[in-house]
Amino acid sequence: MTIDYKVAASAAKALLNLYSFNIAVDSIQVQETKREFEGDLTVVVFPFLKISKTSPENTAIALGELIVKDLEDVIGFNVVKGFLNLEIANSYWIQFLNNSIDLPSYGFKKRNSKNEVMVEYSSPNTNKPLHLGHLRNNFLGYSVAKILEANGHKVQKVQIINDRGIHICKSMISWKNYGEGETPESSGLKGDKLVGKYYVKFDQVYKSQVAALIEEGNDKETAEKKAPIINAARELLQKWESKDPETLALWQMMNSWVYEGFEHTYREMGVNFDKLYYESNTYLNGKDEIKKGLNSGVLFKKDDGSVWCDLTQDGLDEKLVLRGDGTAVYMTQDIGTAILRYQDYPDLAYQIYTVGNEQEYHFKVLFLILDKLGFSKAKSNYHLSYGMVELPEGKMKSREGTVVDADDLLEDMIATAKSISETQGKLSDLSEEEKSDTYKKIGYGALKYFLLKVDPKKGMMFNPEESVDFQGNTGPFIQYTYVRAKAVIKKAGKEAQPSTNNLLLSPAEKKVIKTLHNYPSVIKEAARLYNPGVLSNYIFELVKDYNSFYQSTNILKEENLDLVGLRLNFSGLTARVIHSGMKLLGIDMPEKM
RNA sequence: GGGCCAGUAGCUCAGCUGGAUAGAGCACCUCCCUUCUAAGGAGGCGGUCAAAGGUUCGAAUCCUUUCUGGCUCACCA
User: Fold this and answer.
1) Which pLDDT band, with edges at 50, 70 and 90, does A91 fall under?
2) Which of A185, A336, A569, A575 could disulfide-link A485, Cβ–Cβ 3.0 to 4.6 Å?
3) Where are the domains of chain A?
4) What is the pTM of this model?
């Protein structure tokens, strides 16, 4: 039981004794005392005035006296207006530290197998390389998965790979026509980059063909339909659907290039998946489910053969779930995939989809239809919607060449970390391998932290020139503090020992310990909101508190050895909490920097 | 036009279910390394919380309206 709860419960009891009024413990506001005031925890008494029928001050004093009497850990109080500031005994904070020394995963909840959750993220098309937007998506999805695990959930990390459809055929036809047999090996290009190159080529050819047709007197719409290369792509899609061996072979070959390229990028990013779903495997499943839905009357067919779901009762429109020609749309395969996942993981409580906010309507509809089809768990599904990453010039446009390529950016981060590290010259006694490992941890730490510290649902600005800093509220600053704390402990060379309870704490020391004390509730809150930013902000606060203490106090030169031990204890816990918290963000810690 | 989201310091962002004088980082200005790592610390400058109403002991936070920006409402994904 946390001290906050104890205080709230005690306040409730006091209200009952004083005014014979029964109040829910949860409804009592207990908050941290603001820095300008004296005390540790504050009870807001304004809401009780109606019950007490006396002034805020008198109410607060009456409550304070009873709480101090009731709780051993509360040793005093003061009242400012309607705020009852309580002083918590040092022994409470020290005891908390002592209790945490041996906890292997402080702040984490025990695994509860009933709460299995699936988190989907990444899910790129297989015709373009990954870019900055995918980085936000992957870091976000991965981090949320980790945060849920820390909260006791069993988590399945998955992605759906859009390996099928007209967009793939565009790359295929383009490669067929202009590729001259080029492969990743022959060109030295990363597989996804090679396929992306032919996707771009398709677009160029297509545009020039459309332009030529318009020149010949066609209107825009017909020109777009008549362009030979788009028709060739459609033909290829037909062949693919009819399982033409040559087409399938080409498709498999080009996809395998892409997967190899993606695999490399995922490894660099430090993300992974428990299971991969491929659209080419799930879209038929979707069609089956549509059939079932028709039979059960949840869905209906129009005269042209297209299948729809009527959502007008829910305040939405009718939604197409299968084309008139029987081919699948996005919704078809998403229905199929979702249901397949419930079958693959029967204990799944719900699914989380990490997908950009432009698809909010789609997921709203998807969850509704799934529910109507009899998958009531879908009501608990969550669309982890995030805002676009924008550049100073505006949105990323492949046409204008403003797309920030994921591999390039990752490489740049390492280069920046390297150049800063070399200027500082603190890594000189490391091997080359250790150095490059450190550069990577720092550079990627900066990027991940930058992308994760912002509330997911908000759009964010990314200025390649100056955005990713290494000072202030950044990954490297946090890593630096971690390295510092570890260095002190290493120098002290002592095992952690429980501290005596009667030590005096400086304000800086107490602040660090109190912030450490909050870690479990922060993990909970980050999970509740599906927001790694909550965790980032917390780690930053902890790190600032620790640095402030560190700078003002020489830990090892203190003569009182009990005090040295205590400082080492919370330095150790600080390092562990930083390490653990950053791990939940997918960020690794260097041991030196 | 309907729906969803956002608007907080010059810039990038925190601010939880309403609580004390709205906070950080960057940038700018002062200081602090013969010391456990200065990628750091201490301080200063900087705000009509988009605007107007309302709800109440109390509003950046809740409600209404307006303005601005983003996304969305496809037999696209």
Assistant:
1) very high
2) A575
3) 3-88, 164-273, 275-404, 408-584
4) 0.96
Residue nearest to nucleotide B32 (CA to C1'): A551
Inter-CA distances, A445 with A136, A463, A480, Å: 13, 17, 11
Handedness of CA A211, A215, A216, A218 (dihedral sign): positive
At the second CATH level, the architecture of A408-584 is: Orthogonal Bundle (1.10)
The pLDDT of A277-281, averaged and rounded, is 92
**HSE-up (13 A, CA, CB side) for residue A395:** 6
Read off the pLDDT of residues A310-364 as tens digits, 9 standing for 90 and up.
998 888 889 999 999 888 889 999 999 999 999 999 999 999 999 999 999 999 9
Euclidean distance between CA atoms A266 and A272, whole angstroms: 7
Q: Which CATH number fits domain A3-88: 3.30.1360.70, 3.40.50.300, 2.30.110.10, 3.40.50.720?
A: 3.30.1360.70
Pairing mode of beta strands A116-120, A83-88: unpaired
pLDDT at A526 over 90: yes
Closest residue, CA to C1' of B58:
A46
Residue A370 CA, nucleotide B3 C1', distance (Å):
21
Q: How would residue A1 be classed by pLDDT, with cut points 50, 70 and 90?
A: confident
Task: Round to a whole number and report the distance in Å from the CA of A1 to the C1' of B20.
Answer: 27
CA of A50: nucleotide with nearest C1'? B57
Q: Which fold has domain A275-404?
A: Rossmann fold (3.40.50)
Range in A82-86, A187-191, A460-464, A561-565 the model is least confident about: A460-464
DSSP-assigned letter for residue A131: B
Q: Is the dihedral of CA A494, A500, A504, A507 positive or negative?
A: positive
The total of other beta-carbon atoms located within 10 Å of residue A521's CB is 13
pLDDT at residue number A132: 94
